[in-house]
Amino acid sequence: MNPIELDSAEFVWLQQRQYEQVEAREQERIAQAHKGLVVVGKEIVVGDDSTDAPPALRGDLQAAVDRIAQLEKENRELKQRNSQLEKTVKTLQSQVNSLQKGDAKKDDADDDDDDDDDDVDLFGSDDEEDEEEAEARRAERAKAYQEKKSKKPAIVAKSSVILFVKPWDDETDMKEMERLVRSIEMDGLVWGAAKLVPVGYGINKLQISCVVVDEKVSIEDLSEDITTKFEDHVQSVDVAAFNKL
């Protein structure tokens, strides 16, 4: 097919009719080939109305169908996982809510068990009150605090003490020494057990225990009293042990 140049710009085909017939047959063949391909389930098959489907085209379409089926499967699996995750999240949230409710109840119980001093607010907010009303409220709170405090039993601090009372020599009457020591009486002093402890060369010292109320009895004053009052029998007094009760 050789073209003839007309006016140096246009071409005309001598066999134009033949070219158009060839092109029409090719278009019909391609259309017929596509028409013959039918999707059945997950496979590409050739329909009854065509037997001219290219194998390569059939393979490409089959691969596309397979990929779509795989994507649908993965989508279903993702939906199942999302559903499971939602259930897990709901379960965890329920557990967290239960723990928070338990902590809140525990805090309320702890607040109820706090010392009575914590129940009295000596410094209430008076931002919206005038000065006189604020003073009255503070005075009322202070009074309530003092009343509660006065009703509390006073804690008595006591100590357990062991004294070593040493005689002058081995001729000192140790029974008399113990009697003299026990003869000292003070408010807050209770004498306990006593025994003799060998020192050496036939000399014994008196080990005697007592319980004292710290606010009422001074161990230093007690030791000085024993030494001063019974100086004929007592050489010195030492504190062997001192424990708070």
Features:
245 residues; elongated; 6 strands; alpha+beta; 5 helices; 4-stranded antiparallel sheet
Describe this structure in words.
The chain has 245 residues and is of the alpha+beta class. It is built from five helices and six strands, in the order H-E-E-H-H-E-H-E-E-H-E. The protein has helices at 16-35, 55-113, 131-151, 174-182, 219-229, and strands at 37-40, 43-46, 158-167, 189-200, 203-213, 234-244. The strands form two sheets. A four-stranded antiparallel sheet has the order 4-5-3-6, covered by helices on one side. A hairpin with a 2-residue loop joins strand 1 (37-40) and strand 2.
Describe what is shown at a glance:
49% of the residues lie in helices and 21% in strands. The chain has a 4-stranded antiparallel β-sheet, with helices on one face. Strands 1-2 form a two-stranded antiparallel ribbon.
Task: Give the overall shape, derived from the CA principal axes.
Answer: elongated
- Strand fraction equals 15-25%
Indicate the radius of gyration in whole angstroms: 56 Å
Task: Assign the structural class, choosing from mainly alpha, mainly beta, alpha/beta, alpha+beta, or little secondary structure.
Answer: alpha+beta
Number of strands: 6
The side-by-side strand order for the widest beta sheet comes to: 4-5-3-6
Secondary-structure element sequence?
Answer: HEEHHEHEEHE
* pLDDT < 50 runs, ≥5 residues: 1-14, 48-52
- Alpha plus pi helix count: 5
Q: Mind summarizing the main beta sheet?
A: 4 strands, antiparallel
Looking at how many chains there are and whether they match, the oligomeric state comes to single chain
User: What is the averaged pLDDT score?
Assistant: 76
Distance between the termini: 127 Å
Q: Classify the helix fraction into a percent range.
A: 40-55%
